[in-house]
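input
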Amino acid sequence: MKHSAALGLAFLSTLAAQPPIAGKLVAFEGAISVDGAQLPPGYLRVLLDPLGSGNELSAEVRSDGTFTIGSVSPGHWRLSAQGAFIKSVTRGGRELSAADIEIGAKAGPPFKIVASTNFATLRVTAPGQPPPTEGILVFVWIDGRPDGPIFPVTGHTGPFRSGGEMGMPPGRHLVCAFVGVQPWMTPLSSSYFGALRPALEGHCRTVELFEGGEATEQAVPAPFISAEDLKRLREKLEQ
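output
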């Protein structure tokens, strides 16, 4: 079983919320502990992404597990960890959602984060005997949220092949897998993914993954959209 901890960056859902507001900057600090295989020194980082406009902020986790991200605008942020997925977040004994962390203008108790490197494994197979040699393209809506991250997977050095595996955080994810993908079918940027969802949903399946567990999804034949429709979609989005 293969685990791809680096994918934990992309694999956290987000909720609509108010963006960070201008004004006094504060420090986001706390401590993080990691279940499972420990990451090499200097690799573990805590990241904040604004739920709205703004730039990602991050800080390296110190050897004692503590971290500090300075100069954070009060507002709503998405919290994640590089190389791991977040299991829980608490502050002053109160449980919070990593998908929507509200940071106030006044300092408060430090955050306590529990993360894990025990990613689940999603194995993608292709029909046919012998297995076809065409590439496999996988779309994932984390937790099935229409406004959440969408992750198009084509492999690290090339398209997914029969029996390909990918590491994912636990949860109930909407997964679409296609075999026989041609270059023109692959979206050029993230702006296309949401627009493609209506064309994909009929071929998707909700897959429930548990920490350290495995699941298998079979790819269905492409194309999922015609070349003409994809061209019109791109032109509309680029206007």
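quick obs: The mean pLDDT is 79.
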